[in-house]
Amino acid sequence: MIKAIVFDAYGTLYDVQSVGEVIEAAFPERGEYITQVWRLKQLEYSWLRSMMGEFEDFWAVTREALHYTLGTLGLRPEEALFERVAEAYNRLLPYPDAEAALTALAGRRLAILSNGSNDMLSALVRNSGLDQHFHAVMSVDAKRVYKPDMRSYEIVEEKLGAKPDEVLFVSSNGFDVAGAKRFGFHVARIERVPAAALKDEIAGAATIGPLTMFKALRLQEEAMSQRPDFVISSLSLLPGLIDGLDVEPIARSA
Ligand code: LAC
C-alpha cells in the first residue's frame, strides 16, 4: 500500500529553465549558457559538499554555482544584479502540467522532498501557489546532506511515517531516480525529454548547444542498475498511473 506520494521539486514540479528570461535580461546573449552551467554546477556542488562532509544549504550552493558560472564569462556583476538573478531560483515557474496533476491527486498524502533549503522551498511553493496541495514540504536541511545520499531519503519516513516501500517517489532527475530506487522507494520517472527526441535533436544540430548538453546529462535515465518502476512523459499521466495502484486515502477535512 502506498501511503505517500513524494515529489522532487527542481526539474520535476518546477522548471529550472524558467530562470532563463531573467538571466537573458541581465546578461544578453548568454541566457542559455548561464542557465545550463548554473544548474549543472549547482548539482555538482551539492554532491561535492555531501562527499566532503561540508554542508552549506542549497541557497549557498546555488549562489556559489552562480558565481562560478559568471566567472567562466569573466563577469563580476554588482551585488544587486547578482541577487536579482540568484532570486530567480525562488520564483521558478511550475511546469504547466503540475497544478492539474496535484489537484487530481487530492485526497492522497502528497509531499515534496528536495535539496532546496527550507527557506527556498517555502518561497517556491508560496510564489507558485502550489503550497495548498502538500501535506509536507521537506528539505534535506534536516539531515545536512544532499540527495542522492541515502540519509536524505530517510527524512520521508521520519516526517511522514511511511516506510520506503510505502512511498511512490516522483522525479525527472536521473540521479534522484537512481538514488530513490536504491533507497527502496517505488519510483515514477517523469521523462521530460524522451531519448528518441534527444537523439533527433542531436542528429539535426549543426553544433550541440548548452541546452542539448543539459538534456543529455541531466534529463535522461541513468545507465545504472537502479531503474524506475514507472516511466511517464508528463505529470498529467500521474493520476492515471496512481489510479492503478493501491494508495491509502487521507481523511478529508470537512
Ligand atoms: C531537488 C533537486 C534534485 O529538488 O532538483 O531536490
Task: Note down, in words, how this protein is organized.
The chain has 254 residues and is an alpha/beta fold. Helices cover 45% and strands 12% of the residues. The chain has eleven helices and eight strands. It has helices at 20-26, 31-52, 58-71, 79-87, 98-104, 118-128, 150-160, 174-183, 195-203, 210-218, 238-243, and strands at residues 4-7, 14-15, 93-94, 110-114, 136-139, 167-171, 186-190, 230-232. A six-stranded parallel β-sheet has the order 5-4-1-6-7-8. Helix 1 (20-26) crosses helix 2 (31-52) and helix 2 (31-52) crosses helix 3. The longest helix has 22 residues, at 31-52. The chain is globular and about 55 Å long. The model has no long low-confidence stretch (mean pLDDT 96). It binds lactic acid (LAC). The site of lactic acid has 10 residues, from loops.
Spell out the key features of this protein.
globular; 254 residues; 11 helices; binds lactic acid; two-stranded antiparallel sheet; 8 strands; alpha/beta
Residue share in β-strands: 5-15%
So what's the overall shape?
A: globular
SSE order in H/E notation? EEHHHHEHEHEHEHEHHEH
Spatial ordering of strands, largest sheet: 5-4-1-6-7-8
Largest sheet, strands/sense/barrel: 6 strands, parallel
Number of helices: 11
If you compute it from the alpha carbons, what radius of gyration comes out, rounded to the nearest whole angstrom?
18 Å
Number of strands: 8
